[in-house]
Specification:
By secondary structure, the protein is an alpha/beta fold. It folds into three domains: about 1-235, Alpha/Beta hydrolase fold, catalytic domain (Rossmann fold, 3-Layer(aba) Sandwich), CATH 3.40.50.1820; about 240-335, Immunoglobulin-like, CATH 2.60.40.2190; about 335-475, Sandwich (Immunoglobulin-like), CATH 2.60.40.2200. The protein is built from eight helices and 23 strands. The strands form five sheets. The protein has an eight-stranded mixed beta sheet. Strands 2-1-3-4-5 form a five-stranded parallel beta sheet, sandwiched between helices. Helix 2 (about 120-140) crosses helix 3 (about 150-160). The longest helix is centred in the N-terminal third of the chain and has 19 residues, at about 120-140.
Length: about 475
């Protein structure tokens, strides 16, 4: 996410997690749209950086297998720097697109820092150490740098020193500080044009985080880096085996869930209940929170369960299919005294859900939630109707203590005041001794019924269980 809350290198886990404490004070929100669609380099245009962005070429490639490998001299390591409340999660979709277009997975990396901190100087120093580590491991003189939102403030500060800037061949500033004070080849995709900030490459109709994750943004980034258009933009199921890995982190600090235990279960697609007696894989997590790899079926669903000695609650994660291999899967969790937990109404009678997507929820979206259980049933209700405005990534769905066992769809206290978050009063009856029913979530992105996405999760009681649901930011 670009601002308040929410690294493991890609493939082979090239990372040393850097958990500093800082963030820029620059405005992350970004507003406005533009019908322009032009690209202009920053100070010192590079190949692919100037002129008008062209649509991707027609291609017979269906995206199930990677395109021909890009030339070795062009595939400098890529380092992504997230924003305030962000993580490597905002790079997951683009990483898959880079790989299918011929970029080596082991050269994709994300620098993770404290998503709620304010010490940008410290971040820039830690970024320098991280880039040096990547360069040393991959024997590369330079890298490509991509910053998003508050990550552009970190990157701009990093690039302000000549000895650091020479380590970067090209820089992409996604909806943030832009290219105004950058001396190397730079491009700045953004929601709108702001020439004073060096944002001269608008993507019409997109929101702040969407600028980081969309295929339109990827097309701009790829052409800037490699001087040709990508042949594949859509993310589809790969033909070979799919392996995933990632980190379980304390949100928003991005420190690892040290000492936690992770179990990965195969789940029934129609209920979310476990479909096997034993987990597919288990991991005892270290200080970096890294787990994996796990080979998964791209047509199946999975449940990820985090347990730890510091919390009586089990944290359950449910996601859509994993169509392609990824090393950027993030499980955003936290200790029992986390702010979100402290402001949640919990009981054995109802389920609490946190529903996220790395593409802003807007009033144009449809997110219907229905519950069927032995104790009670709740019809499908569109929680977007009153629950979100622009730039909301996470929606907390809970039974408000002020109106027990009633779904008013009113905003909950506290959550809507947090950047990129909101909360909606929704009663989802739970099984008191464990799940006795199913909660069905139906998402129509921007109201598009042709791209409907459906997830089913068990109705875990909120007094002992935390449940997070993640929809993909691309159609499946």
């Amino acid at each position: 996410m670009g601002c308040k809350h929410w690294c493991l290198s890609a493939s082979l886990m090239l990372t040393s997690t850097i958990a500093a404490t800082g963030c820029s004070d620059s405005d992350d929100s970004g507003t406005g749209q533009s019908s322009d669609y032009m690209a202009t380099a920053g100070n010192g245009a590079a190949a692919g950086a100037g002129g008008s962005a062209k649509p991707p070429p027609s291609s017979s490639a269906d995206g199930t297998e990677p395109e021909a490998a890009l030339p070795d001299d062009l595939t400098l390591p890529i380092v992504f720097v997230h924003g305030f409340a962000g993580s490597a999660q905002q790079f997951d979709s683009q990483a898959m697109r880079f790989v299918v277009n011929g970029f080596p997975a082991e050269r994709l990396h994300a620098f993770e820092h404290d998503g709620a901190g304010t010490m940008v100087d410290r971040f820039a120093t830690d970024l320098d150490a991280y880039i040096d580590e990547v360069r040393s491991r991959l024997k590369a003189e330079q890298v490509y740098l991509i910053g998003h939102s508050r990550g552009t403030a970190v990157s701009s500060l990093y690039l302000s020193q000549a000895d650091r800037a020479k380590k970067v061949a090209k820089y992409i500033a996604l909806d943030g500080a832009g290219c105004a004070n950058v001396s190397i080849p730079c491009i700045a995709p953004a929601q709108t044009t702001n020439t004073r900030a060096g944002q001269t490459h608008p993507i019409p109709g997109q929101k702040h985080v969407e600028v980081a994750t969309s295929k339109e943004s990827f097309a701009i980034q790829f052409e800037f880096l490699f001087d040709r258009e990508p042949r594949v933009l859509d993310i589809v199921k790969q033909r070979g085996p799919v392996e995933i890995s990632g980190r379980a982190v304390n949100f928003p600090a991005n420190t690892g869930r040290d000492g936690a235990h992770l179990a990965v279960w195969k789940a029934r697609s129609d209920t979310g209940l476990r479909s096997a007696d034993e987990p597919l894989a288990e991991f005892d997590l270290g200080s970096d929170g890294a787990w994996g790899p796990v080979r998964v079926d791209p047509d199946a669903h999975y449940e990820f369960v985090l347990t730890s000695d510091d919390s009586a609650n089990a944290h359950h994660f449910y996601m859509q299919h994993f169509p392609r291999s990824s090393a950027f899967v993030r499980l955003l969790s936290g200790p029992p005294d986390s702010d979100a937990r402290a402001h949640s109404h919990i009981s054995a009678q109802h389920t609490n859900l946190t529903v996220s997507r790395m593409r802003e929820w807007t009033p144009d979206d449809v997110l219907e939630v229905a519950t069927v259980s032995k104790s009670a049933e709740q019809p499908a209700r569109n929680v977007i109707s009153q629950g979100t405005g622009a730039n909301r990534i996470a929606i907390y769905l809970q039974d408000d203590a002020a109106s027990p066992e009633e779904s008013t769809l009113d905003l909950l206290p506290w959550f809507p005041e947090q950047p990129f978050q909101t909360g909606v009063d929704l009663y989802m009856p739970a099984g008191q001794d464990g799940p006795d029913g199913t909660i069905t979530l139906t998402n129509q992105p921007r109201g598009d019924a042709q791209a409907t996405q459906v997830l089913h999760v068990p109705n875990w009681p909120s007094d002992q269980h935390t449940v997070s649901v993640l929809f993909s930011d691309y159609p499946q």
